[in-house]
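Bumping with the actual sequence this time:
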Amino acid sequence: MIPDTLREELKARIASAITTREAAVDVMKELQRHYGWLTDTAVHEAAELLGLSTLQVEELATFYEMIYRRPVGRRVIHVCDSISCWSVGCEEIMAYLQEKLGVEPGGTSADGMFTLIPCACLGNCGEGPTLMIGDTLYGRLTPERVDEILEKERKVL
């Protein structure tokens, strides 16, 4: 159950949107931030707030890569695997992260800190290979830079 303050904030956002569907992603992201991932409860709450069916919310949730319908680590690492990043070594960065974190793509590290997810273009093509954690883009990755980023991100929480 979401706190009343969050419920009222979401209602205000929905009311200021041109259509409720326009606010759907924002609502799902806020509920995801609250729960850590978009739980079944969150899908029902979003549907209720938006005046949509749970199926409609589910369809929207599964369309977007950054809406998580299963538990994830405290920090989610999105590694761009588009053609631009692929051509400058994203596969090596992904392999390095898999080894470093002890996970396969989609997996979460044993300490629950990081979930590793390949994704389509992050829009940072000139700085590839690129990854994103939270709202922060990191480009021109090397294994050494990845180590620095992981250390920095561990301190965020």
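The tokens above came from a reply further down the thread. The mean pLDDT is 96.
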